[in-house]
């Protein structure tokens, strides 16, 4: 009887370990891309900000992408991005659907160093207008992050 109990506890422990390993794995670029879609469809822009690499992008200094690409990624820059996205929600309606598709990658397919995604979104007030945003993902300290030169505000087309 003791043997059976120990076997059951061992099996439960091994199963728990496998579940914990799944929960604690580093998110893939596709996982981060899904978080981006979730951030837009729920208007949870803090979730989006959490996915952005704070490192400046060399040779970039434009707000046309929704966020300054150079200088510090401080609370003022983050607040400006959130304000811009909220203004877009107010004028064109909130995002009601979002899909992401991988466009390209650098490095090897097994170990990419950067990946580019295009996000296709529809907004409530413009159901027939498709908004597109191209975002660049890089590995930053072992996790995938979005570079600041990405298009966060999207472009109607």
Task: Please explain how this structure is put together.
With 157 residues, the protein is α+β, with helices and mostly antiparallel strands. The chain has a single domain, classed as NTF2-like, domain 1 (Nuclear Transport Factor 2, Chain: A). 38% of the residues lie in helices and 29% in strands. The protein contains 4 helices and 5 strands; from the N terminus they run ααααβββββ. The protein has helices spanning 2-23, 29-42, 45-50, 75-92; strands at 95-107, 112-123, 126-140, 143-146, 155-156. Strands 1, 2, 3, 4 and 5 form a 5-stranded antiparallel β-sheet that branches. Strand 1 (95-107) and strand 2 (112-123) form a beta hairpin. The longest helix has 22 residues, at 2-23. The N and C termini lie far apart (69 Å). 25% of the residues are buried. The model has no long low-confidence stretch (mean pLDDT 83).
